[in-house]
Amino acid sequence: MPPQADCHISIEKLDAIAAAAAGSDDAPTGAGRRAIRVTFQDLNYVVTNSANRKAKLSLLTGVSGALLPGELSALLGPSGSGKTTLLDVLAGRKTVGQVQGSILFGGRPPSQTFLRRYTGYVEQFDTLLSNLTPCEMLSYTAAMKNPRSESQAAQQARVETIITQLMLTSCRDVIIGNVLERGISGGQAKRVNIGLALVTNPRILFLDECTSGLDSYSANEVMSVVKSLVPTGITVCTTIHSPTPYAFALLDRITILLRGRVVYWGLNGDHSLRYFQQACPDAVPMGSTHSMQSASEWIVDLTTKADRDGRALEFASLYEKSSQRQENEALLAAQLADSGPVSATTLAELGVKRATATPFWFGILQLLKHRGLKDLRDPAWLLPRIMDKLIVALLIMTLYWGIGDDLSSVNANNISAVLFMWAILPGFSASSYVPAIVLERGLFVRERSDGLYRTITYLCFKLAEEVFLALLISLPFSCLVFFPLQMQGSWALFWAVYFLTTIIGIALAYFIAALAPNMDAANAAVPAYVVTLLFFVGMLIRQDDMPSYWGWYLYIDFLHFAWGALVINQYEGKGTTVYGGREVLEFYNLDGRSRWALLGYESLFFIAFFTLAWLALAFKRHQKR
Ligand SMILES: Nc1ncnc2c1ncn2[C@@H]1O[C@H](COP(=O)(O)OP(=O)(O)OP(=O)(O)O)[C@@H](O)[C@H]1O
């Protein structure tokens, strides 16, 4: 049984609400909250044609309309008609191309900061954290998006209200899951996404294909929930590809697009049906293909067929000349001429200066609390970071047991080899940190666009949790190797080299992951780069034996400084019967150098890779839209 149409509001009642809204840009709505009105006129959007980079392509042409308070607005049209494009343009989410025309929120042009802070955007594809529950995901987003002045109790109360409002009570504490680990259903995931957009009480909610991929029952549930938001003072606009008859009946005002042009904008229901029946008298009558055909199906079929038959321009021109268009022009002109009073709250929101509500340090603390602690308890996160290092530490311990105090020339090769392995292995294990960035790319882009945090906050959080774990595991693992092998010199330096090389590897992996187009490319690039570093460590070929044209590479090889510091630590000040530690250091061109200075030099690589990772995350756009 489909969900009860308990949120149906009659067209007449909505007309009354819209009429009341027309006098003010801050129209009061059912729940006493003020909804905002969005008007757009003569929108054109042009991009470089991806099939022919020399040509321009117009994706929207002369699009006008409005999203009115108290109404559920929808953008309809066949695939490729420009629905998502128009939604993105209205929400200010286009990163490429040129937009022309006027878009006004509450009668004023909105800033990017306002759009990030006070509008909600629900993407077509879910961007959720699989190891959190819906309640945890909502609480985390609420903590990140709402001002610090708001109490935790108030935030939690809002989360609970959203859970009830979005009918998520039954899955409140179920893990979200992913393709490998079963969690909540697709319809529930879609509603969690809507909830994320709602936690900050947005003034406008944009939804892209919020029913795609759902069975009709779940699609109807989602649409009921969306409809129920309208009376709470949120201006709602959704794109919808093929609405079920029930979902179609919930829409108040629809815009139908064909090839980026409007072929209808107006009230839904009888009004839209009458328009198409009058505009297209030669169309196959409704119900003639099958007796159960609904009005929505008939309109969708009619416009899709027109698109397929190459009649998009003809339909757009019919609308241009129609009385419907004239009425719409008058409606828009009246609204633009009399934008009415704007409340102080709306004015303050429109003038907002920061896209994020929380400061840098508070954002990091919240990320660590809501996501970091969860990761540290998640075996799927922990094991790939620990097991490879543990296995290698045990192997080194058992294979090289007790060789560290034999400083004879016969043993020099073994010692420099084990130090070589100890220095390079943390660099090699850097690949295991690639998924942390690549798999989360969609989530990161969405959360940054939503104003949850800035790039630097996200990067510092990701590094902080990795560095914390690296610190925890490097201490026992370095003991497992240093003492059983009876290595010489300082344990602190032995550990510090391992720890530092691990975190340089993490920053390197983050940089490459942020640049690489996908996981395969990043996974191939990290070891390929690290292999080039091995040749210049100074052990496989001595520094003195390197051709001069390759000598420079050694200075940008952090593993060279790691290994050099370890060799000096082992041999400095030691004498042997055959030759002294000094001769070993001379052999490797390390005599007279300070192990701590080499360590300090190596630490500069962390700063360099951190900066590169930050720049790549901030400026490399993988998702052009
Ligand atoms: N740079 C580009 N070069 C060529 N075509 C482009 C470019 N950018 C977008 N398009 C095309 O513009 C059209 C509009 O895309 P949009 O995503 O808005 O359609 P849509 O109506 O939302 O479709 P769907 O229902 O399938 O999501 C599509 O045909 C898309 O392929």
Topology:
Elements: H1 11-22, E1 26-28, E2 34-36, E3 38-48, E4 56-67, E5 72-76, H2 83-91, E6 98-105, H3 112-118, E7 119-122, H4 134-145, H5 152-165, H6 186-198, E8 204-207, H7 216-229, E9 235-239, H8 245-250, E10 253-258, E11 261-267, H9 270-279, H10 295-308, H11 312-320, H12 323-337, H13 344-350, H14 360-376, H15 379-399, H16 409-428, H17 434-438, H18 441-449, H19 455-485, H20 491-515, H21 519-534, H22 558-571, H23 581-587, H24 595-619
Parallel strand pairs: 5-9, 5-10, 7-8, 8-9
Antiparallel strand pairs: 1-2, 3-4, 3-6, 10-11
Helix pairs in contact: 4-5, 4-6, 4-14, 6-7, 14-19, 15-19, 16-20, 16-22, 19-20, 20-21, 20-22, 20-24, 22-23, 22-24
The structure holds adenosine-5'-triphosphate (ATP).
Residues 47, 49-51, 57, 59, 77, 79-85, 239, 241 line the site of adenosine-5'-triphosphate (ATP).
Supply database-style keywords.
disordered N terminus, three-stranded antiparallel beta sheet, 2 domains, 625 residues, Rossmann fold, binds adenosine-5'-triphosphate
